[in-house]
């Protein structure tokens, strides 16, 4: 079996004026990503996602990957990430290179799963996993005026028992947002906060101390991803676990996070970290050092599917039934038709449980009409 065709498909969706949302850094109106479709001489098709702009993905594929991927055996997928670090030399750590590697890698694993008639998580991890616990990413900063508690109340009404909210504007508003979220979630709900790298270390530490009483599961990106020493400073100053990884690409960046003891949780994004092959290696490094793994997801349905399959394969080491710590999977509650509309059978997180597809490969079927509707290259 070998790959005979490769297609990049940019997709996007825009929010109306006045309906922007985001984090403490800025508002956004556009969601955009790039899908990649591989076909083989056996008729099997694989899907991946490069979480990067379409024109850059297309150019990177054409310049660096197409010649080697066309004719490639999908089962040789794990050589792809290694090759990307050495050929061309010095380009491997680039976000756009790793985004393209991610898309090709995931599409190959999709094909492998289909050829073996097994879901990807069974190939990666070997154990059965039927469901995960979704957490709602919500309480975004928005252009619209709305009651602060409304979005997290909606998530609770949908059955979510865990949520991650945006903070990072200043300590006073951080405390207000956290207090509100905790009141809505109740004492038993799991609550995480995301600063999106908007603070200097002393500011992040100030907020960490101020919100500690609200039983926070983790603080995400307290400082910018480049601020290695800042992560160490924040981690040393608080007992709240620290998480990061959405803006880290490839094994070497994650190895530094883990080796420096800068975080308690790594969060690879399957559309940028190097795909399932790199994510598996990252998870092995992390769990070996007793660091938790929770994938980051701000993707289309394809990236979501890859993250679910990956999450279902990750070991819960060192925990046993005596310390229940279910794998949490991110499910953002903003408007996202690139996830909701793109599949023939969309993911459903309601009721506090998210099913892991058991069909071969990623376990998804693309709605071709929806795909054409959101294409942005025509």
Automatic annotation (TrEMBL):
PANTHER family: D-GALACTONATE DEHYDRATASE, D-GALACTONATE DEHYDRATASE-RELATED. The keyword Lyase applies. Residues 148-241 form the Mandelate racemase/muconate lactonizing enzyme C-terminal domain. One of its GO terms (biological process) is amino acid catabolic process. The keyword Cell membrane does not apply. Gene3D superfamilies: Enolase-like C-terminal domain, Enolase-like, N-terminal domain. Keywords: Lyase. InterPro entries: DgoD-like, Enolase-like_C_sf, Enolase-like_N, Enolase_C-like, Mandel_Rmase/mucon_lact_enz_CS, Mandelate_racemase_C, Mandelate_racemase_N_dom. This is Mandelate racemase. CDD domains: MR_like. One of its GO terms (molecular function) is lyase activity. It holds the Pfam family MR_MLE_C. Residues 339-378 are annotated as: Disordered.
């Amino acid at each position: 079996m070998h790959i005979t065709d490769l297609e990049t498909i940019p997709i996007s969706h825009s929010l109306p004026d006045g309906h922007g949302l985001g984090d403490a850094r800025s508002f956004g109106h556009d969601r955009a990503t790039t899908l990649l479709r591989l076909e083989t001489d056996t008729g099997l098709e694989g899907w991946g996602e490069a979480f990067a702009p379409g024109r850059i993905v297309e150019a990177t594929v054409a310049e660096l990957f197409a010649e080697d991927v066309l004719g490639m055996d999908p089962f040789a997928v794990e050589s792809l990430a290694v090759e990307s670090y050495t050929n061309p030399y010095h380009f491997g750590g680039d976000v756009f290179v790793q985004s393209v590697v991610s898309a090709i890698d995931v599409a190959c694993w999709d094909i492998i799963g289909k050829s073996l008639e097994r879901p990807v998580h069974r190939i990666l991890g070997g154990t059965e996993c039927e469901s995960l616990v979704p957490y709602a990413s919500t309480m975004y900063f928005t252009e619209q005026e709305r009651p602060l508690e409304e979005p997290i109340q909606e998530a609770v009404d949908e059955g979510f028992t865990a949520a991650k909210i945006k903070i990072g504007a200043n300590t006073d508003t951080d405390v207000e947002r956290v207090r509100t979220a905790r009141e809505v979630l109740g004492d038993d709900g799991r609550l995480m906060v995301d600063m999106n790298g908007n603070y200097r270390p002393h500011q992040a530490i100030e907020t960490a101390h101020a919100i500690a009483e609200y039983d926070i599961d983790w603080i995400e990106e307290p400082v910018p991803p480049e601020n290695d020493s800042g992560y160490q400073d924040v981690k040393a100053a608080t007992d709240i676990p620290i998480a990061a990884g959405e803006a880290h690409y490839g094994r070497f960046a994650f190895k530094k996070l883990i080796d420096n003891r800068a975080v308690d949780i790594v969060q690879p994004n399957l559309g940028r970290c190097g795909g399932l092959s790199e994510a598996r290696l990252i998870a092995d490094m992390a769990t070996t050092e007793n660091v938790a793994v929770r994938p980051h997801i701000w993707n289309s349905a394809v990236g979501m599917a890859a993250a679910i399959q990956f999450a279902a394969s990750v070991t819960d080491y060192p925990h046993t039934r005596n310390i229940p710590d279910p794998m949490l999977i991110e499910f953002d509650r903003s408007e996202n038709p690139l996830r909701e509309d793109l599949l023939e059978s969309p993911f459903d997180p309601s009721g506090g449980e998210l099913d892991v597809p058991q069909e071969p490969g990623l376990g998804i079927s693309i709605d071709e009409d929806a795909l054409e509707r959101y294409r942005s290259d025509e």
